[in-house]
Write a structure and sequence with these properties.
The complex is a heterodimer of chains A (258) and B (410). With 258 residues, chain A is of the alpha/beta class. Chain A is 39% helix and 24% strand. Classes of the chains: A alpha/beta (258), B mainly alpha (410). Chains A and B meet through helix 2, helix 3, helix 4, helix 5 and helix 6 of A and helix 9, helix 10, helix 11 and helix 17 of B.
Chain lengths: 258, 410
């Protein structure tokens, strides 16, 4: 089954079971190149589990994950990153005791070429690559707006800047598809507006964005298409205004009306 | 003369010495280099030509190499390795077997005498290979589990050398190991010769000064290579894995091969040190590589400042000299102190009292323990920690404070 050209990622019948628990149940969806795609659902709906299945942290029990027409089901996380999917984490996972710029430089790892030998003897090619990567990392910090914190430990940043740093680190891997896991969790309304602006800027770089978000308003304002997950099942899919009025979605979020 | 203020300035200004010295680690390297250069002359002068302290320093250098290597595994990549001495043993035995008469009495009945300079690198490669062999199945384990497996490996290797006695001589050890030979060397009054002259070819034949120079060069080389690695793609990958393995993998780092490289590179320094060790003592026995050696090296890096190369070096040198110079010198020193204070009666054996010297002798390890405990109490982050370590401890203390505040409010 070849994916149509305008789809960057296609999931077909992805299921993930943990023993008797079905965390993701037969989910199929496709993400178009260059769109902002949102995944919403109540707590425990299996949103992050689905992300983990896509990024190789988990292997789906059944079903397929197809990136740009290539089946990447069950690839290891670093292979998925190399193929062009980067992600952030719901509960920020930075390298706490590394500086911000080093965090971003780690993100460049997968696009660097220095071999053990080059690094051991600091060969000219390696020096140049290091300089270039440092510039690129600085540029990304500027892009997300935390260049002034470049030499601080990631741990010492305020919460909002940590979220931004995580995005910068993910962008450093040169992804084609960026997965953001609740990027606005715990943000003030002002910070949410800034985040939306940042996500649009990321889109302008030609990167497709898939985000998990709790804040309905933010999701409605930014994404072109939404998939709603409940108890691991896809219960709705479509443009925001359609999803908003879907009775099943309202039920999942607000409970059954009496 | 408007150009006078141009940034050219004096040589001093151009080297930016003032700024560099302000950086603690650079200053530390400077002091270490100066001490290492002055040390042989100073000890020859104060010890009236005795080279004992120089040969002691040469052996301390072995442990500096070991500490630098283990620091890659534990300090950079955060993998707790409790069997590091195994790789040391493998390096030492690799050299000993192929540079002595040992294999003549083995089933192959042929003795090899390969040159030290070659075998040093062979020892390195063999140890690195064993590091990879051990690492491959075990590096999927984390933390405590990895520590237990490496502990087991550390126990197995000396036992293998002990029990393969038709090859290794077992408990009889391997003696008569070849000395390194150089095409030329400078000799002079410091080595007992009358004039400064060039000897060619030069056989080390247990010359402490030659070994001292050799280990100085090896350690300097190790420092340069490991510092390069630390500030590279690979070094950052190690640190990322230490900080958060899942995030590191999601950033495209192949965690298995990266950890394997840490293990292999750490082991290779140990193999290097092993070859030097075999040559400088001329004897290797399974007893030289017991668990206590792994632990001593670990203590050296924890105490010196995990993750920081100059700190680790200072740690290794201090612990080595405490163990092999300060503690053995303590009993006779206390005995003569007792005599000079008119307390000769204390020196005599009397019933259960073994005399001051005997009593101190018995308490040596207790004293060592006390030194370690007090050093860790005074500087829990190590003598010269990496900045990361410093931060971690600061935060740990901060968390305790927060907990205390919460309790106070409860």
């Amino acid at each position: 089954m070849a994916a149509p050209d305008d789809n960057i990622l296609v999931l077909t019948n992805v299921t993930k079971r943990f023993g008797g628990l079905v965390a993701v149940d037969d989910v199929s969806l496709s993400i178009k190149r260059g769109e902002i795609f949102a995944l919403i659902g109540p707590n425990g709906a299996g949103k992050t589990t689905l992300f983990n299945n896509v990024t190789g942290l988990f292997k789906p029990t059944s079903g397929h994950v197809i990136l740009n027409g290539t089946d990447i089901t069950g690839s290891r996380p670093h292979e998925v990153a190399r193929l062009g999917i980067a992600r952030t984490f719901q509960n920020i996972r930075l390298f706490d005791y590394m500086t911000c710029i080093d965090n971003v430089r780690v993100g460049r790892h997968v696009r660097m070429h220095a071999k053990l030998w080059d690094s051991l003897f600091k060969l000219p090619a390696e020096r140049h690559e290091e300089e270039r990567v440092t510039d690129e990392a600085m540029e990304l910090l500027r892009f997300v707006g935390i260049q002034r914190q470049a030499h601080q430990y990631a741990r010492n940043l305020p919460y909002g800047q940590q979220r931004r740093l995580e995005i910068a680190r993910a962008l450093a891997t040169e992804p084609k598809l960026l997965l953001l896991d609740e990027p606005a969790a715990g943000f003030t309304p002002q910070e949410k507006v800034e985040l939306m602006a940042l996500v649009r800027k990321i889109l302008e770089r030609g990167i497709t964005v898939w985000l998990i978000e709790h804040d309905m308003k933010l999701v409605m304002g930014i994404s072109e298409r939404i998939v709603v997950l409940d108890h691991g099942e896809k219960i709705a899919e479509g443009p925001p205004e359609e999803v908003r009025t879907d009775p099943r979605v309202i039920e999942a979020y607000l409970g059954k009306s009496a | 003369m408007s150009r006078a203020a141009a940034p050219r300035g004096s040589l001093f200004a151009r080297l930016r010495l003032r700024e560099r010295i302000r950086d603690r680690d650079t200053a530390l390297y400077g002091i270490l280099i100066i001490v290492a250069l002055v040390y042989p002359a100073a000890t020859l002068y104060t010890q009236e030509g005795s080279t004992y302290l120089i040969s002691l320093a040469g052996h301390a250098g072995t442990f500096v190499l070991l500490a630098i290597g283990l620091n890659v595994v534990v300090g950079f990549a955060g993998l707790l390795d409790l069997g590091y001495a195994a790789f040391f043993a493998i390096g030492a035995y690799t050299y000993a077997l192929f540079a002595s008469q040992q294999l003549a009495s083995s089933p192959i009945h042929h003795a090899y005498h390969l040159p030290f300079w070659l075998m040093m690198f062979v020892g390195l490669l063999v140890a690195a290979a064993f590091g990879a062999i051990l690492g491959f199945p075990t590096l999927r384990l984390r933390g405590d589990y990895l520590a237990i497996v490496t502990l087991g490996f550390g126990e197995i290797v000396p036992n293998v050398f002990y029990n393969l006695d038709q090859w290794t001589g077992g408990i009889n050890a391997i003696g008569g190991i070849d000395q390194p030979v150089l095409p030329a060397w400078i000799t002079g009054p410091w080595a007992g010769a009358n004039d400064i002259a060039i000897v060619a070819p030069f056989n080390f034949s247990f010359d402490p000064i030659a070994y001292y120079v050799l280990i100085f060069v090896l350690v300097a080389g190790a420092i340069i290579l490991v510092s390069n690695l630390q500030r590279s793609r690979l070094g950052r990958a190690w640190m990322a894995i230490r900080e958060d393995e899942v995030a590191a993998a999601a950033m495209g780092i192949n965690t298995v091969t990266t950890k394997l490289l840490a293990f292999g590179i750490g082991a290779s320094f140990s193999g290097f040190a092993g070859a030097y060790y075999g040559a400088s003592f001329g004897l290797v026995s399974p007893d030289d590589f017991l668990f206590i050696v792994s632990i001593t090296v670990l203590v050296m890096i924890v105490l010196g400042g995990m993750g920081n190369i100059p700190g680790v070096i200072v740690g290794a040198i201090s612990i080595y000299f405490i163990l092999n110079w300060l503690l053995p010198a303590l009993p006779p020193a206390l005995e003569s102190a007792a005599s000079s204070f008119g307390l000769q009666s204390l020196n005599a054996q009397n019933g259960d009292w073994p005399g001051v010297a005997g009593a101190t002798q018995r308490l040596t390890l207790l004293i060592f323990g006390l030194i370690l405990v007090s050093m860790m109490l005074l500087r829990p982050q190590g003598l010269f920690p990496s900045r990361v370590r410093e931060q971690e401890l600061k935060h740990a203390v901060g968390l305790e404070d927060e907990a205390a505040i919460e309790q106070a409010h409860a």
